[in-house]
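Aim 2 progress update. The chain analyzed this quarter is reproduced below.
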Amino acid sequence: MVPLGATALTVYGAEDDGGAEPVFQEQLLKLRGRGRVAQVFLWARWTLYVTPWLMYCGWLVAPLVSTVTPSRHSLLPLLPVMLLGLVQCGVYLPGVRRGLSHYVYGTPAPWRLIAVSGVLAAASMALLTKLMTDGGLSTTNLQSWSTMTLFPTLPVGCLLSLVIKKRWQALVYVVVTAVTMTAMSLAGVPLVCVAGLPITLAFATVFAALTCRSWGWILAAMRELDEAKGAQARLAVAEERLRFARDMHDVVGRNLAVIALKSELAVRLSRKGRPEAADQMSEVQQLAQDSQREVRDVVRAYREADLDVEMAGARAVLQAAGVQCLMDQEDSTGLPQQVQSVLAWVVREGTTNVLRHANASTCWLTLRVTSDGTPGGDRTRGAKPGRAGAGADTAARPEPAVIFTMENDGVVPDVIRRGAGSGIAGLRERLAALDGTLVVGPRPDGRFWLRAHVPLEEGQVAKGDASGLTASGWAART
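Predicted structure tokens:
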């Protein structure tokens, strides 16, 4: 559970120049920057924190004041009940926090706080009974009496709903109802007031189940989904490692076994002075060279990822993570292998960043192959990168290029402030080898933008057009 930041609230921000926005906006942005699970946890906790104070004002203080008998205009006899209600609310706050932690994460239950809350509830009911029997409260307003007896049992009922099963909660209701009705009857409370206690206490039990226990169930389900999402990501990594290990075993396993056998044979022959030992070692050398070449081919194939495969994999991974993926992809079969490989790495790194560093709900992937350098192609022949239009030859023709863009919402401000990591630096190095560029950063509309631009030769675009590199619209939209 992500704790709420402890930043002190002031009227305006630290950089107040007379027109700064209130800090409330900054706190709201911080809340939006948290993960979805953390946002729901925070909302649930504060909803449950505020609820008892609202009930205290509406279900205890207001009915108490309205039922004071006309002969007693002083509110002093009501102060002990009101003070006990405030104490109950104060005990409830840490109790519900630990109760949620127990329900969701299995931490120790707050039994001491529950016991204290139960004692306070019994004391409040005793004071209300005394006020009723002494004539301090009117016996004609049964609705207000039922409301007053409702509040003392709600805090302890909410806490119990988080730590015991439903059948035990029903048993507690039956026992508490029987004991309370007996005690009030013996104390001299009118039977018409005692008769409504079962309905009042039943409402308190159901209310506790519908608030605290329901929130606990929702948060536990979200925790399990979040853990399942992490397990799915770890399984994907493990599956990729197993695939690579299987390829390595298939490639070099047999050769290593043959090398071991031939080396052992060469040792025995050399000990006997046989000339065949040199022939065996020559074969071992050849096998070692073949194995080295095959391992290099496996690693090269692993590093040179396929662009279409990576685009399809990115869509599948994002959708599995609950992110809607919209793709506008042109046919890339005619692109050079080096260009496809480096763009595939851009897709892989961009997808990883969306999953790890954003709370995205939608992600847009666009792949365009242009013959005139557009859209966004500001590189021209004869002009240096980044200085197009500044001293460049106006007659120069724009270069053809392939452009990949990836946008996502759910930007986390803290991640932006930390800046780009080693993955982005590695992508820039790969693109620089092909004279390409990479632009990464937030956009004014609240999205995060990753754009890779790789220039192409005229012949490469012509070949791509022959292979079907034409605008295909949203053919791969999902």
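Residues 1-25, 373-397, 462-478 have pLDDT under 50 and may be disordered. Residues 40 and 219 are 8 Å apart (CA to CA). These observations will guide the mutagenesis experiments scheduled for the next reporting period.
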